[in-house]
Amino acid sequence: MHELSITQNILSIVLQQAKAVPANKITKINLTIGELSGIVDECVQLYFDLLSKDTIAAEAELCFHRPPTKVRCRNCATTFSPDNFNWTCPNCREQKIEIVSGRECYVSSIEVD
Amino acid sequence: MEIKILQNILSANDTIARRNQDQLDKHGILAINIMSSPGAGKTSLILQTISRLKPKTRVAVIEGDVASSIDADMIHKQGVLVIQINTEGGCHLDANMTENALNNLPLEEIDLLLIENVGNLICPAEFALGEHKKVMLLSVPEGDDKPHKYPLMFTETDVVLVNKIDLLPYLDFDVSAFDKAVTGLNPRVKILQVSCKTGDGLEPWFSWLEDEIKQMKTAKADR
User: Fold this and answer.
1) Which residues of B touch A99 (CB under 8 A)?
2) Has residue B42 been placed in a domain?
3) Among partner residues B5, B10, B11, which is closest to A108 by beta-carbon distance?
4) pTM: predicted TM-score of the whole model, two decimal places
């Protein structure tokens, strides 16, 4: 159900932006959603198809860009992509990390006619 | 034609959350967002907190649940203000639901607002409600590997209460491995071991809350 509110927000953002142009039709929506955000693309697509019916965004193509999770070791500053939720630094074996990327959750752009 | 947007998908929620926090600040109310898996002990923690802090502290509760008013009824019996939000299947509370609840509470009569989020370790971490502090409960039967599986929840929180420690002798929960994993993700976090059933270990939690309430009141007086 997480995806329902996410999708409602996506739709309201793109409709508002398209209205400002003004555009007749939204053909493509580029989303940047990091791996860590726990959002399932298929669910967003499903909700989007339902919610966008009767709007100028109906049938727009949703394009998901999924930046991978990257973390930085707070001990030795090595940046790495954790494998299988293993947060141990490959360089110094510490588990002290900060998240560098993977939490992104934004509408990057839209294509309109 | 391509139009650059770069707008956070949750920005509408964040705007309402900031509005909620302004309203809470104005009344000097400390708001705590309590998160955990279902059954980790959120309601028990709230009941313990009410019975210890009342009547010196005026407590109110926003009770988030997928359905039913079982928890809200229990809290209501303690004689505190409680507002039930049923998300009708929704997996988390959001700022809008919280704003509606705030609009139905007598804010001038509250010192501490405990918000019990929907039991879930994923979605609630993403949605700000307007709270001042996030607190999460992890009960020991859930296992010590949870920080690795649900990193955001542990990264976001201010306090982790490790609940049901009365069960430790029967389980393989590795307390030091858990602490290491949590502080690895979140070095500023406060970890407390408690049992909401026996009351063990809860005193530091109450003192932390009382300190935070005091700071809230001082900040209000200084404005």
Assistant:
1) 151, 155
2) yes
3) B5
4) 0.92
